[in-house]
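Long-time lurker. I teach an intro course on protein structure, and each term I like to show students one example going from raw sequence to a predicted 3D structure in token notation. This year I'd like something fresh instead of my usual example. Would anyone be willing to generate the tokens for the chain below so I can use it in lecture? Attribution to the forum is fine with me.
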Amino acid sequence: MRPINALVSEIHDYEKMLICGHIMPDGDCISSVLALTLALEKIGKQVIPAIDWEIPSMYFKLHDVDRIRKFDSALPEVDLMIIVDVSSPDRIGRFQKYLKNGTRTAVIDHHKTNTYFGDISWVDTKYSSTAQMIYELIQLLDINYDKKMANLNYLGIATDTGFFRYSNVDHKVFQTAAALTKKGANPTEIAQIIMESRKLEELYLFREALENMVCEGQLAYSFLDHNAFSKYGMTENEFGGFVGELRSLDQVEVAMFATESEPGEAHFSLRSKRFFDVSTVAEHFGGGGHPKAAGFSYRYENSDLREVTEEIANYIKEYLDN
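-- Reply from a regular --
Happy to contribute to a lecture. Here you go:
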């Protein structure tokens, strides 16, 4: 049986469900958690949307984002946990408790680095986003969309394709986006929320990221340490990132951007443009992702973020030079 068909059977068999996304959530994660939650509630399921991380503030302009639960030991037991946009168990944070308790688990994901850790793992790298997979699942379940659901589902496709600019875009992506727009999604609203809702303090952080920027041949990288975020009263979650700006430089093939959530703990975002598979770098450092977009977390002692970023940049340069 195809994994998607097995998942449909599981959904029909169980009543109490947890829909769980990954730590450091992006638009695809939030979209997939909420769109699937609303869809399953339409067919009478009891659903808890969950992400064990602070949700970036800009997403609260969307419906139902405030329903997403962080981990709480008081959360009830469920019959089925559906994990979306997650490549490995560590990426769900403290919700790993449900895995350890033997809760029935299904995984829906499009990352090539997925470890197939679910009882059912529907993993397919041909999809642009997990949100596109959620659309197909909802269609197979024969659940009718309302405007709110369509808008949330569209969010993940738009953000994970860079608003239809990345190499993961094909005709099926546009067909799905068009179908969701016909069902009530508002592309203008999503674009404004994601691309035109920056805080003034973010521009100050951009300035510091520019000051820290290093361009060496086909590699560009930068970082923001914990002090920079504290200086402007911002958190790592509230900053939209800088890696896309680094990749946009004409000569650059690989871009890397590091942010320090706490002293000694940083998150690295990697992007490439044409030929370099950044997921291999992310995997080397315990992370994962796609060939053109990946990331990892990194802990360190007796060093600062600049030194660590330079060390990892040197590791990447060895591959770029070969």
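Some talking points for your students: The mean pLDDT is 93. The chain has two domains: 3-195, 200-320.
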